[in-house]
């Protein structure tokens, strides 16, 4: 299970990057500039006031929870990239993977040994 999380995230990032060219740049900016800036800001608020830090932290966590709820439960991810486009990309990826492995255009069922 520990391998599936980062591999799934990388696959999803690659899927979005295949449709939108700016996704890798946006990811780098968000992951390495915006999120650390937010966490540094929360830390600074905690240094100034514990109560203020708790309030700001709870607001940020609530915003993150609302976004995740919208993205996963309300179908926000399908507003960015439709289910059909996702399935088509998955089929194309599996086809390219089979061709790279030399399995041919379609998977063939192994023949069963007769007794």
How many strands in all?
Answer: 0
For the sheet with most strands, the description reads:
none
Helical residue percent band: over 70%
Classify the secondary structure makeup into a structural class.
mainly alpha
State the low-pLDDT regions, or none: none
Give the percentage of residues in beta strands.
under 5%
Rg, nearest Å: 21 Å
Question: Which whole number gives the mean pLDDT?
Answer: 87
Structure description:
By secondary structure, this protein is mainly alpha-helical. The chain has 5 helices and no strands. It has helices spanning 4-19, 23-48, 50-72, 76-80, 83-101. Helix 2 (23-48) packs antiparallel against helix 3. It is elongated and about 65 Å long. The model has no long low-confidence stretch (mean pLDDT 87).
Layout of secondary structure:
Blueprint: H1 4-19, H2 23-48, H3 50-72, H4 76-80, H5 83-101
